[in-house]
Structures are given as structure tokens and as C-alpha cells.
Amino acid sequence: MSTTSPRTKPQARSTTGAVGDKAFHGLALAGGAIILVVLAFVAAFLLIRSLPAIMPETFGPGADEAIDFWEYVWPLMAGTVLVSVIALLLATPIAIGISLFISHYAPRRFSNSIGYLIDLLAAIPSVVYGAWGMLVLAPAMVPIYQWLHENLGFIPLFAGDPAVTTTGRTILTSGVVLAVMVLPIITALCREIFLQVPHLHEEAALALGGTRWEMIKMTVFPFARAGVISSIMLALGRALGETMAVTMVLSPGGFSWSLVTSGANATIPSEIALNFPEAFGQRQAELIAAGLMLFIITLVVNVVARAIVSSHAKKAEGL
């Protein structure tokens, strides 16, 4: 018995480990399948409920006296993409700069405190951002919009009627509010990615005589490129779907390239939030169809982001 017991115990542990691996594999597979099933059900629900609005023979007369669904929805899609792009253009360089300062420049006793303060921005409810943008930021931006119109009005982005910029509730104001909202997302992810850069690479760059900035360009940015792109795309998804802050700040309207004109743009989330509670029948189908367009935009953005990240990962591996 003494010779057989030592042999049976390791075999029992090995069998238990194999069972645990199979169970974990099954749970992970089931979790992934559930996500895909839920996604398929959401897509099917949006498609079925939006058919009365999408089909030309059953549309209308729709919102804003649109002739067909696409005439109604394209200004909303353009406004959604435009305000999200503005937010990313404003937030990305600031977030990357803050991340680099925390990870490579700030003293350790200050870097943690700064990181906590940035993370707190993500805990603020979107309705608070909306109230701040509507009551504080929008009036403060009016003189800036007036100056931009007077001096750069020949550019379509700053053209329009200056008389309607007195409220400051423009798509540029919404973009600034969204930039503040997505800033902690990009900052937190980039900070963690920058901290994962191998120290040997950084020390080798410094040993070759490079300055700290040259070391960052040679080692940090190439290593973190895929992660930075992922963080930007994640923030874009948040900006595309933001509802309350944009609804409170942005005056509803059609679509205009002018960033300083009030009542000239609207987004899909704000359109749904403002009109869905009172909508029924054809109008409800229009709003659900607009949500379907937002679903498609978000899906395309994520697919493109994954393709970009995969290509950069392969280049980093030398494949």
C-alpha cells in the first residue's frame, strides 16, 4: 500500500486539474456564445421594429417632413459622427500627454494622486456633465464663437449666422463636454500601457545617449501603439452612444458644417431621448430605425478598430 499511494495522489490531482480546465473552457465558451446570442437578438429586434420606417412604401410622412427614412436619418448620423470626432480630437492629445506625465515625468508621490483625480472624472454622472455644459460652459463659449465667426467666418466650420450663437449650445460645445467625459477612459488605459513598456528597452535607449523624449519616441510609442488605438476606439464608442450630456447641451436641428451655430445639428442618441417617450406607431419605428443606424456605426467602428490593432500587433511581432 505504501508503494501505490504516492502514485495515485498525483494522478488524482491531474484528473481534478483536467476537469477544472474543461469546466473553465465550457464556461468561457458559454459566456462568449451568450454575448453573441444577445447581440443577435438586439440586432433582430432593431431590424424588425424599424422595417416600417426603412421600407419606402411604408414610410411617412415622417419627422421633419422627410420624404424617406434616409433623408431623415442622415443628418442625425452625420451629427453623431461629427460630435464624436470633435471629442476625440480634443481629448486624445491631452489624455496621452497626461498619461506620459504620470508614467514617465511626474514624481511617484504625485503621479498616483494625479491618476486618482483623473479616474474620478469617470465616476461623475453624465447628467452632471450635461448640466455643467449647458449652464457654465455654453455661456462661457459665446465670446469665443463670436470671435471665431468674425475672424474665421470664411471657413465653413466657423460660418453661419452669428446672431444664433448667443446661447453657446452648439455642436462644438457638445464636443468639448464629450471630450471631458472620454478623457479619463483614454488616460487610464494609456497610463497602464505606458507603464508596461519593458524597462530594459527604456534603459537601452537612454544608455545610447537619447533624451527622455527620444526614449519615449523610440520605445514607448512603438510598444503602446496598438493599446493607444484600442483606448481611442473605446472612447469613441462611449462618445457615439452618449445621450444625456449631448441632449442637455445640444439644441436639436438638422445638420450643418458650422460648429458655432446653435440649433443646427442633432445626434441619434439625443433625438431618441427627446422623442421616444411620446412616440408611437410610425414615429416610434423611425426612432428605432435611427437606433439601428447607431448600432451599425458602432459595430463598424469596433470592427475597424480590431483590424487596426491586429495589424499593428503583427507588425510589432515582426510577422
TrEMBL record:
Coiled coil: none
Cellular localisation: Cell membrane
Domain ABC transmembrane type-1: 77-305
Source species, domain of life: Bacteria
UniProt-listed Pfam families: BPD_transp_1 (PF00528)
Membrane topology qualifier: Multi-pass membrane protein
UniProt xrefs under InterPro entries: MetI-like, MetI-like_sf, Phosphate_PstC, Phosphate_Transport_Permease
Regions crossing the membrane: 27-52, 72-102, 114-138, 171-190, 220-240, 287-309
Primary localisation category: membrane
Keyword terms: Cell membrane, Membrane, Phosphate transport, Transmembrane, Transmembrane helix, Transport
Function: Part of the binding-protein-dependent transport system for phosphate; probably responsible for the translocation of the substrate across the membrane.
NCBIfam families recorded: phosphate_pstC
Family: Belongs to the binding-protein-dependent transport system permease family. CysTW subfamily.
Protein name, as recorded: Phosphate transport system permease protein
Organism: Yaniella flava
Encoding gene (name): pstC
